[in-house]
Design goal:
about 500 residues, alpha+beta, 7 strands, rod-shaped
Length: about 500
């Protein structure tokens, strides 16, 4: 699945999940609307019908009184119409789930309808005694019974309405709860999908970013955590990255091989040049004039510089190819430090720089290192410190014990290194922007060689620098090199 289709699928799923609670709420609202309509068409209409029926019974009672007093045909016809109207209203109760009440009211209305003609006849004949008797014994009891039936129907309707309202309230509460829970679940699922979708994109992108930064810093062994079978755009980027790293590694290897071959081939002509220059200096080919000797001194200095540069290039190439040789042996640490102190004391006087070698308590008497290589490392660091430290400054070599090892620091109060350039100072041929403050130009290989020598001893080298304040190089070495690094063959402890 491509990255675009994955994004579209994820967004569609999130939209569907978020729409779910909305659909539930809309369906609940539709059901509530239907219940309200049913309530309006049944309970409310039944309540209106009962009110009309009660009013009709009251009109019928008033019509009877008017007939008893007026004793005319108009009153009789009005009473007939009221009886018919009440009978129709009573029959309508059966449509609202009140059939028993409709039946009881129908019985009372039939009694009134049957007794009404007699009461009409007695009233119109002026026989008030018998008309009153019919009213008291038949008409009024029937009306009262009909009124009581209406009251019972109203009570039942109120109870039914109350129950239905309570049911609707419970339904609404349940719907609200279900909708809320559904919304929370939908949000959680949507957030989970969004998190997984985001992680599936950001993690490879972050991995690619770290990989590009590592390659930019010269780490060609960096491997991405993106699966090789990933078929989207990020998988294609990962494949391109791996191919780029592979080609850069091949180019770096070719470069190292070229430097090694070129350096090796340069040694022979340089040695020949130096040999002939030494013969000239010894007068084998005759005495040199003053002008020739000045030219000769310049040539010998440049040839020695070129020879030193070629040697450094060969050292770098050997260590990169795994062939750099170490010859560890037992070394008196105090003698090593004393030799360095004496060697750089004269340079400190010449440069007017304060130089000290500080030995912390607890240092071992002996260490098992390659003396020449460690001298080369410390000599290079001290030379750089003097090179960048102005008159009146200070250079210190501080040596202290650490767990199963020795920690050495070379501190100076020189020009310092820009902070963004500190991570690259151990790269081959890299020179920081502080070269203007140096007393002599360098090749950019000394620190690279120092790092490889220290790591071949199983140690570490670091650098801390503040621009305009000074620089501190730290070296931590094990007391005894019991085995060579991955680049080196094993060395017996008794050598």
């Amino acid at each position: 699945m491509t990255l675009r289709s994955r994004l579209v699928t994820g967004l569609v799923l999130i939209a569907i999940i978020l729409v779910g609670p909305l659909v539930i709420a809309i369906q609940s609202l539709y059901r509530l609307r239907d219940d309200v309509r049913a309530f309006r068409d049944k309970e409310f209409a039944a309540s209106l019908l009962l009110g009309q029926l009660r009013e009709g019974l009251n009109d019928l009672r008033r019509g009877e009184l008017a007939l008893l007093f007026a004793r005319d045909t108009v009153s009789r016809n009005a009473m007939d119409r009221q009886v018919s109207s009440v009978a129709e209203l009573g029959d309508s109760l059966s449509h609202f789930q009140l059939p028993d009440y409709a039946k009881d009211i129908g019985v009372s209305i039939r009694q009134i309808a049957e007794a009404a003609p007699e009461e009409y006849r007695f009233a119109l004949a002026g026989d008030t005694t018998r008309a009153d008797s019919m009213s008291l014994n038949v008409f009024v009891p029937a009306l009262n019974h009909a009124d009581s039936v209406v009251h019972r129907a109203e009570r039942e309707l109120r109870a039914r309405t109350t129950q239905r309202v309570a049911g609707q309230a419970a339904t609404i509460a349940t719907t609200a709860t279900v909708s809320g829970v559904a919304l929370v679940l939908a949000l959680l699922i949507a957030m989970t999908i969004a998190f997984l979708l985001t992680r599936s994109i950001t993690r490879p992108v972050s991995d690619l970013e770290h990989g590009m930064r590592a390659v930019a810093d010269g780490d060609l062994d960096y491997r991405l955590n993106i699966p090789a079978d990933r078929s989207d755009e990020l998988g294609q980027l990962a494949m391109s990255f791996e191919e780029m790293v592979r080609q850069l590694g091949e180019l770096d290897k070719l470069k190292a091989e070229f430097v090694s071959v070129a350096s090796h081939e340069l040694k022979t002509p340089i040695n020949v040049m130096i040999g002939y220059l030494q013969l000239l200096e010894e007068g084998i080919y005759g005495p040199l004039t003053r002008e020739q000797r000045e030219v000769h001194n310049t040539l010998i200095a440049q040839a020695n510089t070129l020879s030193r540069l070629v040697k450094q290039l060969l050292d770098v190439s050997r260590f990169e190819a795994g062939g750099g040789r170490l010859e560890p042996r037992a070394i008196a640490l105090d003698d090593l430090l004393g030799e360095l102190e004496r060697a750089f004391h004269v340079l400190a006087l010449q440069r007017e720089v304060h130089f000290t070698v500080q030995r912390k308590p607890g240092l071992p008497d002996q260490v098992f290192w390659d003396l020449d290589r460690i001298n080369e490392v410390l000599g290079n660091l001290l030379s750089n410190a003097f090179k960048f430290t102005p008159h009146g400054g200070s250079v210190d070599l501080v040596v202290e014990p650490v767990d199963n090892g020795v920690h050495m620091q070379v501190r100076d109060t020189g020009a310092g290194i820009p902070p963004e350039q500190v991570p690259r100072i151990f790269d081959k041929f890299y020179q920081a922007d502080n070269q203007k403050s140096a007393r002599a130009a360098g090749s950019g290989l000394g620190l690279a060689i120092a790092k490889q020598i220290v790591e071949a001893h199983g140690g570490t080298i670091t650098c801390e620098s503040t621009l305009g304040v000074g620089t501190t190089f730290g070296i931590t070495l094990p007391t005894r090199v019991t085995r060579r690094s991955s680049m080196q063959r094993a060395v017996p402890a008794h050598v």
